[in-house]
Amino acid sequence: MEFRYLGNSGLKISEITYGNWLTHGSQVENDAAIACVRAALDAGITTFDTADVYANTAAETVLGEALQGQRRESLEIFTKVYFPTGPGGHNDTGLSRKHIHESINGSLRRLGTDYVDLYQAHRYDYETPLEETMQAFADLVRQGKVLYVGVSEWTAEQLRAGHALAKELGVQLISNQPQYSMLWRVIESEVVPASEELGISQIVWSPVAQGILTGKYRPGEQPPAGSRATDDKGGANMIAHFLNDETLTAVQQLAPIAADAGLTMAQLAVAWVLQNDNVASALIGASRPEQVTENVAASGVHLDADVLTRIDEAIGALAQRDPSLTKSPPHRVA
User: Residue ranges of the NADP-dependent oxidoreductase domain (predicted)?
Assistant: First the structure.
């Protein structure tokens, strides 16, 4: 496992981060989820990402249990706040001071830790003044409950505004967590240049496009049994826009490219996002320990320029690049 600095900070994180988004506490049994976390630890992953909204707080509990007994100082634990939790009351969502303070206390309790290394605004909240949000984050940093501040799926303009306020308050906004893959490249034209300017790194989610880039979904065929595309708890909805014959046919052209590089298709996809210098880490999830072992092998892989060119030729115009698709819900999701 190799490590990279997160933004303009002294914090190093593993360039593969283990995330327990759609699986833990929801799609797989706790024993299997814990086995995946243990596999991540065995593979050298030290960075773990979750959020209070995942499985309505259950994912944080599962992660906390899986990490029990580990040396806390050797781990980087990240979580997020914004989306509705609990019964979904009128203050159980958003980035108000009230919700942020109540959410961090619940997250720390579930994770079994006194602090998180990175606390992230899971989306931008149009209904709360940004000054209120950043002041609340700064307070948590001063209280020692949070070491660094990050965001997720913020636009370039939002990153600049948040970074400026954080700097005024004497805290560090060092990361953004966007979707990024060979098929989803919307951050490249605006978010990445702004982040490079500000000293913000990307921690990217879905580098294998929810499994599409593994090659297991084939044009004209039904999705494999037990795959995300067959999941009725949220997974199928997330992957639906990629499940068309044109995209699936193009993805199959990546198979010989991966083979020539001595990689699986999943490893090629994860290695591809790590070629971007502004990416500090690629988030991977798993429902089986062997998936962790496979994806971790992408750490430290260098892809030659001709490989990157062949990938671009295979995917072509199918890659989504519209920067306007980086956005948050216009109103708090209730």
Answer: 15-314
Contact 47, 97 (CB under 8 A): no
* Token duo for residue 261: 């590089």
Judge whether 299 and 1 are in contact, CB under 8 Å.
yes
Measured distance CA(308)–CA(180) in Å, rounded = 15
CA distance 77 to 58: 16
Q: What SS3 class is residue 324?
A: helix
From 5, 18, 54, 180, the catalytic residue: 54
289-296 helix and 265-274 helix, angle to the nearest 10 degrees: 50
Secondary structure E strands in 72-163: 76-81, 116-121, 146-151
Domains with residue ranges and CATH for the chain: 3-325 (3.20.20.100)
Catalytic site residue 54? yes
Neighbours of 85 (CB within 10 A): 22
Burial (CB < 10 A; 0-12, 13-18, 19+), residue 215, is buried
Q: Which tokens is 60 given? A: 């944080």
- pTM of the predicted protein model: 0.93
Contact between residue 155 and residue 327 where contact means Cβ atoms under 8 Å apart: yes
Q: Where do we find the tokens 């954080």?
A: 166
